[in-house]
């Protein structure tokens, strides 16, 4: 008891502390370890979550199988909106979770009103959340093929296109509207462009094709944007053409139309006449340059023919670059390649003990290098002596 009191531990805790037997090896009393301080801060405290993190949302998608997740939602809108938010934050989950999402909707969306509500929720997410237009278009394509409900008012794809047509009809007013109106309209334009690229429609013969109605719609949207050439409208047109220009031009050429040439002509007229900013004009000129290079596409050679310098413009792309004695670069594509390359080999023969990087491989007393005169050129020697005298003079001063 006296020993415990000396070490600062109350005698009442003797049953919790093991006191070793006294003996010759115990020269000093042991010092008690201070108790560990336990934090009262919960592991779920907001301090541990990054800004913008929605803890309640993630709890809905955790600790339960996807098959049972919709059981906790009261309405279809709540379930769909949570899934859209989840897809926005984790787009990589699309492939693994879209199938179950569609199955859940097939059990829930059984009336016209529910299908209309579903279309509106996806449309709003795709046109109001930045960078969701591509994912929204992929989602629409999947649901258009996997939702079983097809009421008299129209199936999922038909209702979606009807919803897009509402915004499309107001294109002239939207391009002339205030900044907020134009911003909403531009988001719709880019979503429609993603739909054109991702929405697959089966033809009468079973072939997969793009929605032709969207192709015509994009052309009219471009006309509306160029008809009101303010900076924001022109930037939207540039984004639209960079995204879909190659596909649109190919489709128009198949029909024998020259619509892309007309678009390029309109762009050149805008650059010359419109009162847009210098940066926007530069963007438009870069777009014209991109189109002149076939939208940046490089056509590979045929699989059935061997690549040659005549049929493949990239034949010499990976060939090394050499330099003549005058420092002029040349490659295998040079007409005088063989002659210049032979000259290069002869130059290397003059220095057999040097690597390409200039490393001296010769040993001491090499007879070749012993014959080289180490004396400086008279002109260089005179300049060097003058430099030494000037340096000495400056040092004395």
TrEMBL record:
Compartments it resides in: Cytoplasm
Principal subcellular localisation of the protein: cytoplasm
Start-end of Polar residues biased regions: 1-16
Keyword set includes Membrane: no
GO CC term (a single one): cytoplasm
Residues covered by region (Disordered): 1-28, 354-374
Keyword Cytoplasm in record: yes
GO terms (BP aspect): regulation of translational initiation
GO molecular function list: RNA binding; translation activator activity
Domain MIF4G: 77-294
InterPro entries in the cross-refs: ARM-type_fold, MIF4G-like_typ-3, mRNA_TranslReg/HistoneTransl
Keywords for this protein: Cytoplasm, Translation regulation
Name of the featured protein: Polyadenylate-binding protein-interacting protein 1
Species for this entry: Spheniscus mendiculus (Galapagos penguin)
